[in-house]
Specification:
Layout: H1 19-29, E1 34-39, E2 52-57, H2 82-92, E3 97-102, E4 117-122, H3 147-157, E5 162-167, E6 180-185, E7 196-197
Parallel strand pairs: 1-2, 3-4, 5-6
Antiparallel strand pairs: 6-7
């Protein structure tokens, strides 16, 4: 579908902007699309359309997810076969590159926001272990480091997220947010769980 959809197809720079401003920018940068503001938590159709961009906003009207033509996150694929997940992602957003990666594989650190790649992390049996999402989504290499170092590293490697240090055992909301990484630390400030978007 990337050959079918003309013009700019992703606006990672608009995460954190006002929804109305994002809507105007998207429509001015690609006159073939209609940007639709949607409040986080709302239900939308899952069809792929070259003429539509969902602009997801929080209760304050601030953009919380990368506006893209097509889908950008697939929580429903957690536990699916990796090859099925890859095919599903390509079908639902063919503007992205999809790669299957086995847990434990060392991959290069992303030093920029990657708005055109999805890594499908799988176990040794080939089943998806992490929610597939566009861009870098987890930092297993930060396990055991100082929380403040992890926080700075995460925000440098993916400027679209806000890393939040949380003391192990603290009660938090269970909502999924693409602009948040919780950095779980022990009482010494050491990272005790793999930081991941969510």
């Amino acid at each position: 579908m990337s050959s079918e959809c003309e013009g700019k197809n992703s606006w990672p720079e608009l995460v954190g902007a006002k929804g109305k401003d994002a809507e105007a920018i998207i429509e001015s940068e690609n006159r073939l699309v209609n940007a639709v503001i949607v409040k986080k938590g709302s239900f939308v159709t899952m069809d792929y359309r070259c003429d539509r961009v969902w602009v997801w906003v929080d209760k304050n009207g601030i953009v919380t997810q990368i506006p893209v033509i097509g889908k950008y996150v697939w929580p429903e694929l957690l536990g699916a076969k990796g090859t099925v997940a890859k095919a599903t992602i390509k079908r639902e957003n063919s503007t992205v590159k999809v790669e299957i990666v086995v847990e434990g594989t060392i991959v290069p650190a992303d030093l920029r926001c990657v708005a055109d790649r999805v890594r499908v992390w799988v176990d040794t049996d080939g089943f998806v272990t992490r929610v597939p999402i566009i861009g870098k989504a987890s930092w297993p290499e930060l396990l055991g480091t100082q929380g403040t170092v992890a926080e700075a590293t995460i925000e440098r490697e993916n400027p679209l997220v806000d890393a939040v240090i949380v003391l192990q055992g603290t009660i938090v909301t269970d909502d999924f947010r693409c602009d948040r990484v919780r950095v779980w630390v022990d009482t010494d400030g050491i990272v005790v769980d793999v930081p991941a978007i969510g």
